[in-house]
Write a structure and sequence with these properties.
Layout lengths: L2 E3 L2 E3 L11 H5 L2 E9 L2 E2 L2 H14 L8 H12 L7 E8 L17 E8 L5 H6 L1 E7 L14 H12 L4 E6 L2 E5 L3 E6 L2 E4 L10 H12 L4 E3 L4 H5 L3 E6 L3 E8 L2 E2 L7 H14 L1
Helix pairs in contact: 6-8
């Protein structure tokens, strides 16, 4: 279980970075989480495209060429067939001599990547769904950047856990943005909808896959703003993320969603997704 750090594959105990690293001091960096099943990455290119977009938004240069990323990531998950794993990768602005928000020229980025097993979904989830809470979106206004500054997400997951829930669904000015670590779909009035891409939320790769699957299989959907009231009155709510796939939400702030069981449209989407990832 070697990890990748700045050009070398090393055992975790041998991987060291400076306390002056800007990722450590400022949360000055970006990341990706890329799933792989049976030795094959799901959505590798879209994930690397999004990494490029996050790097550009943070005015960081790409530290590796696309082909080098692919080589590193493949080596981390080992030869197929391998267990289901995700690769976490992060790029920080690097280690500078002083703690200065303004980074001097010539600092080399710190590049880290490692693979970890993806926990299989508990069978109870397809039977019972998961619980969520809601909370105002207290994050900054650039949710489209996959930044390692995750203070709000950490707090929101804590709030959720304290309420025996899995995830916090956030809203801004009465409109649903996304989960702390996931995107949100809603089925209401017979329509499948998800908030449109904007700077306020991450353009999830799983979200995009679910929309593509819906499109290819004749499930109608709309990308449109979703009011908090619509969320509360929804027949179905789903979460999507690379490590959690598409999950049915059956309790929201302690109330049942629909009849309190995973809905028919979720079952359809989950079947499509399971088929697609295999
Ligand atoms: N989180 N929105 C936020 C804020 C996220 O952090 C994530 C993913 C998503 C879903 O994006 P994707 O489908 O591309 O995984 C949406 C990852 C998994 C994490 O931070 O661990």
């Amino acid at each position: 279980n070697e990890l990748y750090l700045n050009g070398a594959f090393v055992p975790p105990e041998a991987a060291h970075i400076s306390v002056m690293d800007r990722g450590f001091l400022f949360g000055d960096g970006v990341y990706e989480v890329i799933p792989s099943y049976g030795g094959h990455f799901l959505g590798l290119e879209p994930h690397l495209d999004r990494l490029d977009a996050s790097l550009a938004a943070m005015r960081l240069d790409a530290p590796l060429a696309r082909e080098d990323w692919r080589t590193v990531l493949r080596r981390l998950i080992g030869e197929p067939p391998a267990a289901d794993q995700y690769v976490y990768l992060q790029v920080t602005r690097g280690t500078a001599p002083e703690r200065d928000h303004l980074c001097p020229e010539g600092v080399r980025p710190t590049v880290l990547a490692f693979a970890k097993p993806i926990k299989p979904r508990a069978p109870a989830i397809a039977e019972q769904g998961v619980a969520c809470i809601t909370h105002p979106d207290i994050r900054w206004l650039r949710g489209d950047i996959k930044s390692i500054s995750l203070a709000a997400a950490v707090l929101m997951r804590r709030e959720a856990a304290d309420a025996d829930a899995l995830e916090t669904i956030m809203h801004r000015d009465g409109w649903v943005t996304e989960g702390a670590v996931s995107n949100v779909f809603v089925v209401a009035g017979g329509a499948l909808m998800t908030p449109p891409k904007s700077r306020l939320l991450l353009s999830g790769i799983t979200r995009e896959m679910a929309l593509t699957l819906a499109h290819e299989h004749g499930l109608e959907f709309v990308e449109r703003p979703v009011a908090l009231d619509t969320l509360r009155a929804a027949d179905e709510i789903w979460l999507s993320s690379s490590t959690r796939e598409v999950l049915p939400v059956t309790r929201l702030d302690g109330e049942l969603v629909g009849d309190g069981r995973p809905g028919p449209l979720w079952r359809r989407m989950d079947a499509l997704y399971q088929d697609y990832k295999a």
